[in-house]
Design a protein that fits this description.
heterodimer, A: 448 residues, 7-stranded mixed β-sheet, 36% helix, B: alpha/beta, 15 helices
Amino acid sequence: MGHPYIPNSDPEIRARMLAAIGASSVEEFYADIPDAIRLHRPLDLPAPLRSEAELVRHMDRLLSRNKPAELSFLGAGCYRHHVPAVVEEVGNRSEFLTAYAGEPYEDHGRFQALWEYQSLMGELLELDVVNVPTYDGFQAAGTALRMAGRATRRRRLLIVGPVDPDKLSKLEDFVRPDHDVEVLDGSHDGWQAADLVVGADVAAVYIEAPNYHGVLDPALPLLAERAHAVGALFVVGCNPISLGVVASPASYGADIVCGDIQPLGIRMSFGGGAAGFIATRDEQRLVREFPSRLFGVVPTVVEGEYGFGDVYYDRTSFALREQGKEWVGTAAALNGIMAGVYLALMGPRGMREIGETILALTAYAQERLAAVPSVSVPNAGSGLVSFADFVVRFTGSRTASEVNALLLEQGIQGGKVLSETDALFCVTEIHTREDIDRLAAVLEEIAK
Amino acid sequence: MSAPSPHTPVSPADARIAPKPRLRRFHQARWDEPLIFELDSPGERGVEVPITDLPVPTLPAGLARAAAPALPEMSQPHVLRHYMRLSQETLGVDLNVDIGQGTCTMKYSPKVNDSFVRDPRIAELHPLQDEGTVQGVLEILYRLEGLLKEISGMDRVSLQPGSGSSAIYTNVSMIRAYHAARGEGEQRDEIITTQFSHPTNAAAPKTAGYKVITLMPDADGYPDIEALRAAVGPRTAALLITNPEDTGIFNPRIEEFVRLVHGVGGLCCYDQANANGILGITRARDAGFDLCHFNLHKTFSTPHMCGGPAAGASAVTSALAPFLPRPTIEFDGARYRLDDDRPESIGKIRPFYGVVPNLVRAYAWIMALGAEGLRAVAETSVLNNNYLISKVLEIEGVSLPYARGRRRVEQARYSWEKLNADTGVHSEQIGYRVSDFGTHYWTSHHPYLVPEPMTLEPTESYSQADLDEYAAILAAVAREAYEDPEVVRTAPHNGPIHQMRDASLEDPGTWAVTWRAYRRKVGGAA
């Protein structure tokens, strides 16, 4: 019996094709697979849901056990922002959704859309080279650091925290063969990023803007100077949605900038919406260290036509296998196209306004929650500015987890629990002042 | 010319619609679409965002943006129209017989599966939500792991890798952790792979710090077992191999390869990028492998999305399970939970838990097919491939190197060496001409070990008529190469653009990865 996804699965069609080939059965094609490693039974899988109606009912039953939050203050690397309808209209277009590795001629539109993504990000980041997205911000940071290591031929990496412990885990695994990592966590013991001393054996100083706790560290420009003074590269991870108002890392000295474009119009999807960017100046010493694809614009034989192709292809493992830079394969291109649509819709004014809205709401939320008894906001008092994420400390008898459980009873997802007392809360442009007031009011009841 | 009156009698010949020509008369949309920056219209905007009257805090010195980013200013309909035109200038699988992208398993991605991931009950989930509010997605992931365990024969599966290449790296990381845990981390510093495996099988272990040894094919195209005998030893950490390789040839001595590597204490890791033709026929575990990975966007039908997001799955035996990325998903009979407490884990390989939308799609696809359906996928894809081989080999100038007289599994790597010698036309040029007929064609990965290569992989998604059409296009282009090679050399003729002057892509003085760089180097709009 034929399956609707498989045109040639009908027995009569199969018989006709076998006859055309001169084969007696499909078994003939498997003659090279030794009997000893053949599976002599059907796979033990659930009975198929052959009809679309049954499949939909099955999936609906599973999906109904998920409850997206009405009001959530979760961020910590995955952000709920408004996704303009046009972004998804483009991202869901069948041509983009199902295209893959086509040549620049038949996939001209895909190449142009990705080159435009690189270019729009280039304007936001004030840098001339941006890659076709890699998997996620973790991978982007890992690759950026290895790029810095290859460019400087030095071993030591200084990571100035706070950084997401999960990201640190990825980084340490990824750079281990070539680098020793030293993590200086600014969130501990009054240590300040400005205290950093950079040795002449350091390949790169890595810091985030905003950092994992949401803080825009005033020492960022100073760190760039310290790194450059000893010939180290300054690598900055940033949240691109902040850059309509926050200075681009390149403007205060970053040599490599990286991060995740999920905030630029990609749904959270339980953390599945990530895609990583890496950007540098247009210097051969840096460009040659990209493992990713870099699309470039060129003329065609017809005046006024643009073509697009791979820049400096012989950097890549596609061309050189183990002699290439890291590896390249399928990564997260469509998210790049969608982020490009997002930036085009937002334009300079939209990016400024969303940045200002988030800065203002973050400051308001910090101030409002700090006024709640048994709640403090450690990074708010000292004049530090936070973007989206901020740390909340529960100083009463209830732990951060207990507070979250009580919030959930009121239909509110609290922040990510960092410790017994601390949680990382987050607001974006989708929150209103009333949402924050509601959180504060509930906390007044429960944070005791 | 005025339209004939409806009352004017017409002759039967005038009313007859002529049959379609044997070759499709195709022309892709050609919009001559400007670059998005050329559509800038100051004062326009594409979307309004919420603004607030709350005070905006002052940023520290040097951290306030001095000048607004030079993004284009465009109204919403103009942004939409621009991208719709670019989509029309893209040939997705939903439009074409995409059997010319060998090694990539271009197949139909069921539309119903897209509806599940657009549902807010997936799309709007935050990964750090309370576990009680995400039991459905955790159940899907747990069940998908179970399905892939049975399909591979392995004991545990991580769904976190972002792609096949990411899964290869994840497997290499686990191999490194396994040997380190046994005190052999320093000693085992070599990884062996084969020339006809994906380039990442060489590049990922190199990135992880290994010396890479590549086995070349023997005269019949099988990875050279004598070379393997010479390569294995106390320094061997693992063998990374795919079977069938990208030539479509299944290596019947695969168990012997595994025995040789196990014999010196190395691990065996199966790249199952080419699993489509062997689903339910043979499994990684059955041949003795310790680890394997799947590309969910290939074998399990999630859409390819212009080059991702993809999704990978790494599967391992219980001996390797302690090293899996954290968290794993566990089920106690009532409740699903994420287990982060895994002391021997290689740690995190990406944020959160994987490319969840694609994991949901892969789950739905397997559930729609079941064991019988997966078997039909495998058998149909090899039937389609061997049928296509019989048609292609009738074309003058093409050959199928290696393993003469043997069948291929789900793809084949052909050679246009003779056609090139006869006409001077290259494989790449054939591909550009093939695109004039509304379909895609790819040569192969570099380096070209097979001269003038062409790699075709028909998968199960194409009908006999589709295969006939593709073979007829190849035959027509080959005939042109012999009779009128200029037509092929100057292709494409029916695409969105004409041949590129692309030498500048290799020149640091002229390459332009962004509009900023283009303006700086070339001097503004053309």
